[in-house]
Amino acid sequence: MIPIYVLTGSFILFLVAGHAGVAFFHGWQEPLRASLGVMFLLTASAHWGSRRTDLIAMVPPVFPRPALLVTLTGLLEIAGAIALQFSRLAPFATASLFLMLIAIFPANVYAAQHRLTIGGRAVPSLFPRAIIQIVFLIALWFAIQPI
Residue 81's CB: how many other CB atoms inside 10 A? Predict the structure, then answer.
């Protein structure tokens, strides 16, 4: 749930900054891309911290080398978060992150079905996790739509 709060809170903060005259945050797409960047950097940080073991446990057993998959998705989140900030790279970052979110959804299903924890907290049930994932996908979609 924390990533959705970070996405929402940073979006509001960047919108306010844009209205206050910060040129980088003019309009609404730049604040949205920046807030997605912050959110993906936050989620990427779990791939190497104390929650790494929890993320590895979320990878369904059918997938080989779960530690490598967790590392790769973390690196993709970092690269995507950075690339989102550049107008020319944003479409490629969005497509990559969009596909990654779809690809990691089986881990969310597995975690919910097996009542796993992340950082000692139970993962949300499947329905809220699916809604959050859809919100992220919609935000990515709107981040690159022509104005």
Answer: 22
